[in-house]
């Protein structure tokens, strides 16, 4: 499948997907594990329990308008990125 794009979609209950998927792919397909980009809500960078699972990954963070003011100090930064 060289040269093709693949969408791998996960409907998850935790924020561990980036770490688990990379770990599972590392042995057999290390190039895929290294180049995969993850799309996630801002909880992966703000929640202390979730953050370690996404560190070191290619991450595209999406800020939800519904949760814009969950952490008031970050609201202005989130609005500038929308």
From TrEMBL:
GO cellular component: chloroplast stroma
Protein name, entry field: Phospholipid/glycerol acyltransferase family protein
GO terms of biological process kind: phosphatidylglycerol biosynthetic process
Gene3D superfamilies on file: Glycerol-3-phosphate (1)-acyltransferase
Lineage: Eukaryota, Viridiplantae, Streptophyta, Embryophyta, Tracheophyta
Domain Phospholipid/glycerol acyltransferase: 3-66
Organism whose genome encodes this protein: Actinidia rufa
Keywords: Acyltransferase, Transferase
MF terms in GO: glycerol-3-phosphate O-acyltransferase activity
